[in-house]
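in:
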């Protein structure tokens, strides 16, 4: 094709290409990086977001979005391997999101990436009645293992502020105490969590956090619990039903009258309500859903079999979590540790339910 092209034209084209290449290298450092998302403008640099789902989401200025997976140059870590890894457990769901176990991530890499984003982590716990006795262990171990090096605020809902212990907190880590009324039934404490968490997110927490975790206070941390747990919506497999339990044997709400109803033949996993987390606004939507569905049940004189956990499981069946965490993220000191649980990150304590619960555990 070039054989019939005038020599002058070829010389002109070569000169043009040379000028264009030279101009690119002259200005390339001033060009913005190419992104697979659009930056959303934000008046608050603390909550500036990265949009991964298109320009429509820029209308929602309060929503945190995971940004660039940027890592500091020079960080030393083990080379990833495509041929080795966990073979004793499944590490991906059938809707193709991570199922997180020890050995499926590098804590050095993932913590470094998320520290660059500098998210604010909120932890909501309820310590009502005699459950204030568990605050010290939860907070002290949290300061050793929970999102170390990140900004964390523990929101403690309690009916007895005087029993909240004084704990030495790390840099950028705080405790906020919020008052709630006492309860005469433990079921009311459980259902009340959804009400008071909804109200507090609306009035305060959404201005102070990017991620939110709901956790049970009668637990302590044993090992790191870090950025590998973060996603838009992360749910934890219940330790009692994660192995070979048929879906029809899950303790879902089976009564059609309840808003938490899941019919036989449906279900993915059974999730615990003792630990769950995600983007602040996604958690707000889910917490509010559990509260409102519980209120609808109350109008029909029915209470879901496992209160908010039943509503949580229905929601997550039809609104899939974007990350599933293994039972490492909520074990129980009552149970023998299974061979596939290589590390326990947080675990529920042994206790006398009849003594600590307001209605004797019934």
């Amino acid at each position: 094709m070039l054989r019939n092209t005038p020599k002058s034209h070829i010389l002109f084209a070569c000169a043009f290409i040379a000028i264009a290449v030279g101009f690119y290298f002259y200005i390339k450092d001033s060009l913005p990086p190419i992104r697979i998302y659009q930056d959303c403008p934000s008046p608050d640099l603390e909550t500036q977001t990265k949009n991964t789902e298109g320009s429509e989401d820029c209308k929602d200025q309060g929503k945190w979005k995971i940004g660039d997976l940027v890592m500091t140059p020079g960080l030393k870590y083990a080379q990833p391997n495509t041929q080795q890894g966990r073979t004793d457990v499944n590490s991906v769901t059938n809707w193709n999101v991570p199922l997180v176990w020890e050995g499926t991530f590098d804590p050095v890499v993932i913590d470094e990436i998320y520290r660059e984003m500098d998210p604010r982590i909120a932890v909501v716990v309820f310590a009502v009645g005699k459950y204030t006795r568990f605050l010290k262990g939860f907070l002290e171990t949290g300061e050793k293992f929970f999102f170390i090096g990140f900004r964390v605020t523990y929101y403690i809902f309690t009916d007895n502020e005087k029993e909240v212990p004084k704990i030495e907190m790390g840099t950028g880590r705080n405790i906020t105490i919020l008052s709630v009324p006492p309860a005469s039934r433990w079921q009311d404490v459980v259902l009340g969590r959804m009400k008071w968490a909804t109200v507090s997110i609306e009035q305060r927490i959404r201005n102070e956090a990017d991620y939110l975790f709901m956790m049970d206070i009668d637990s302590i941390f044993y090992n790191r619990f870090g950025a590998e747990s973060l996603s838009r919506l992360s749910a934890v497999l219940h330790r009692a039903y994660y192995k070979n339990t048929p879906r029809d044997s899950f303790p879902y709400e089976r009564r059609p009258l309840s808003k938490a109803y899941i019919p036989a033949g449906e279900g993915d996993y059974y999730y615990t309500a003792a630990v769950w987390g995600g983007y602040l606004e996604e958690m707000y939507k889910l917490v509010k859903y559990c509260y409102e569905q519980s209120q609808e049940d109350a109008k029909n004189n029915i209470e879901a079999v496992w209160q908010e956990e039943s509503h949580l499981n229905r929601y997550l069946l039809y609104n899939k979590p974007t990350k599933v965490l293994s039972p490492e993220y909520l074990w129980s000191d009552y149970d023998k540790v299974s061979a596939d649980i290589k590390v326990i990150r947080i675990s529920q304590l042994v206790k006398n339910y009849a003594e600590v619960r307001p209605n004797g555990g019934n």
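note: DSSP finds seven helices and 13 strands in the chain.
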